[in-house]
Amino acid sequence: MNILQSLSGIVQRVNTAPDLQSALDIIVRDVREAMGTEVCTVYMADHGESRLVFTATEGLNREALGKLSLPFGQGLVGQVALREESINTSNAQTDPNFQFLENIGEEPFNSFLGVPIVHHRRVLGVLVVQQTDRRSFDESEEAFLLTMSAQLAGVIAHAQATGMLDTSANANVANAEFRGIAGASGVAIGRALVVSQPADLYGVPSRRNKDVYEEIVFFRACVGRVRKDVAKLSMQLADRLPAEELALFDVYSKMLDEHALPAEIEQLIEAGEWAQGAVSRVILSHLRAFEQMENSYLKERAVDVKDLGRRVLEYLQLANREPMIYPDNVVLVGNELTATMLAEVPRKKLVGLVSLKGSSNSHVAILARSMGVPTVMGAVDVPFTEVDGSELIVDGYAGVVYFNPSLELRTSYQEIAEEEQLVSKGLEALKDLKCETTDGHTVALWVNTGLASDASRSLDHGAEGVGLYRTEVPFLMRDRFPSEEEQRAIYRMHLEAFAPNPVTMRTLDIGGDKSLSYFPIEEDNPFLGWRGIRITLDHPEIFLPQLRAMMKANVGIENLGIMLPMISHMGEIDESMKLIRRAHSELLDEGFDVPLPPVGVMIEVPAAVCLAGEIASRVDFISVGSNDLTQYLLAVDRNNSSVADLYCSYHPAVLQALQMIVSAAHEVSTPVSICGELAGDPGAALLLMAMGYDSLSMNATNLPKVKSVIRAFTKAEADSLLSDVMLMHSADSIQSAIENVLEARGVTRFFRDSIRGRDSR
Q1: pLDDT tens digits for 417-432?
Q2: pTM
Q3: CA 136 to chain centre
Q4: Residues 577 and 603 in one domain
Q5: Which of 234, 386, 494, 648 shows a CA-CA span of 20 to 30 A to 275?
Q6: Among 40, 435, 648, 675, the one annotated catalytic
Q7: Which domain holds residue 397?
């Protein structure tokens, strides 16, 4: 048996299945054949009923499918699911855990091998093979089945999720749940509007056409234009290509013949699908068929089919005769949302965002937080082309999207949304009040910004300064590096808006999950690679103009602070300071009356934690980037939904590191701020204040909540809470302790961001 060929072949065939049941039928058929067994069966988990349902089989009684089930833990199959490990026995019926199911037809079979199907720690089902002969399956067979289970788990999970949207098959389906990464906090309830990049065959939503005749006429006109393009290309290349290569254009012409691909597409249009959706479905179907072929020549023809499909789709989209009409309460959904897609929707109609790709630090997520639009990123299992026009709930706290919510779930989230509005209005009165405890201890509340629109919103929420201005945002907004003068104008606007309060500008921080289209960085492990200060020190031609632009923007205002990201070596500070002094000296020589601004360092890698005291003695201030610090301390990619349960800023190691940093800095009288998401967590803010952090910098939305909580406690109470949690050894215990304190003071309504976020782990 060629295991790799069998694995890849089965997975490919399962990937092309139109629905979950078809996928399971392929699995049992192909696995039985690959292993040469008499029986292969899949039992799917019904977690609502805590049962395993007889769902697909080759070799047992198919008439019993869907009718028979057994509880978790009961029988050999139930034990596999309960224990989440394989069971291999040569005489199943004498095993004490054996459970006889009537009418299933397994009486003759003695040998049993069952393995769990697990996806993200959740048992999806059990995969079983059986034989009449009394023998234990050997190690290679068990390893093959286990490998097959692991390979298929994600495919099954996605097929299962897609099947949950098929309301025509099950009128009672509700609350289909898709998990991603929290991109921007808040709750949104609205109708999905699917958008995609131009000519993206994989991103076309399924929609009903308005008029079959008009749609077919429209489609035929676009096919005619593609035929003309193909003929024109053939003529242009006739004297440059040999005859055998020119023959490719004849193949294209035949594919576009009215009895070939267009005929299939028109059948779907006549069945009610709009032209773009019909093109996408037919072309993707052919692509999957070609990709399964073993003949390399035929496999390559997939490229030709895809090219033709994209050409037709492009004309369909270019010739779209009607401008987009945006309904109220739009939840924008896409494979990879962009800033331009976001900008095209009228702000009053946009209530939520869902993107299959991207992270909480993606440009779109940054924009969403700035606009206060609840967002879920990285929702990879959402079959986004199938949800267009459907009602969705976007939980931007937990990073969850619900399709077809029940009345009960919708009501629950509606109450949360209304409570948010009431809380927001109630907090408006705090805008001009100090952030101080009831016994007079004050802490500065700053904001994290990156867009011009952030300024007024931040000031409206009572911001006392900017703890982190992300200078990479203007770079992300362009298709080239912004000039020194363009940067100066942008920075000046922010410095003026917040004057005389301080504005801390972080030097260009790209790399990791923040890449520029015009400055591509290809790395196997970008978070441990070329990013932050490492890039700018390697490119002084980028770094120096930015430093000059910052200092020129500060003329006459003098509220600028410059912050260096991703510092891990003392030498990086020395090199950066040389360039900062050089830029300053150049400006003085050019006649600019500019002071040398205070310079600080971001503490966001473990090495910098250990060097915090030495770093603090060499700079004017330090600021903790708790997001990156947490992921590096815990070795967890914070943008990876697969390990989201391991990312927790309340981890004891994180809190101990935060205490070490502030203690080391204060020993040399250097002020310390924190500008990660933790600073905007009302419960964590109490701990950070008690640790001694001089300022907390956060998203403007969270600022009033944090201020309200701090104003409800004494400094002594915060100190006592900190003393208690620093003795604890688990994040759950720490979370519970904070929740109890907030509940006792009656301010738990401000804690939803943190509680719901951790529930999503």
Answers
A1: 888 787 777 777 788 8
A2: 0.72
A3: 43
A4: no
A5: 234
A6: 675
A7: 176-197+327-422
